[in-house]
Amino acid sequence: MTNSDSLVKKIAANAIIAAVYFVLTFCIPVFQYGEIQFRIAEFLVLLCFWRPDFVFGVTLGCLLANCESPMGIFDVLMGTGATLVSSLMIAYLSPRLLVGIIYPVLVNAFVVGGELCWLMGYAFWESVLYVGAGEAVVIVLSYFLWMGLSRNKGFMAAIHPVRHADIHW
Fold this sequence. Notes:
The protein is mainly alpha-helical. It has one domain: Arp2/3 complex 21 kDa subunit ARPC3 (Orthogonal Bundle). The chain has 7 helices and no strands. α1 packs parallel to α2, α3 runs antiparallel to α5 and α5 runs antiparallel to α6. It is globular, with a radius of gyration of 16 Å. 40% of the residues are buried. The mean pLDDT is 89.
């Protein structure tokens, strides 16, 4: 495989990740925006644990989904920024996936919670609590999903991990 083949495959994989993130956010009728959120697409951020290049796809998908946010450009910038930061932290600071689940919960709780306080006038700590709780539910369930899938050789071959290929519970 040439370097250009590898680059094309990485771009295609990230485009798929971005599309899945956007479709899950835009098409599933649950709380995706606001003080109480269960953004199901956030389960994709944990893929960055195995493939740091997936940070691009997750971030792009979040950016596209946030274009539909009632908070407008502020959510595009701040919400997407929170996803970018937490994805980078998962990709580069997590020795174990269990450690990695902490980052998106805390980053989104404080960034998005602060954004809701600033833009919508909600109480800061209440917003942090609600956003963090919703993110925690999605991320903890995602942890069990990805840990289960990581035991499947077909799944691991499909994502082509460049890090943590020998993950254990």
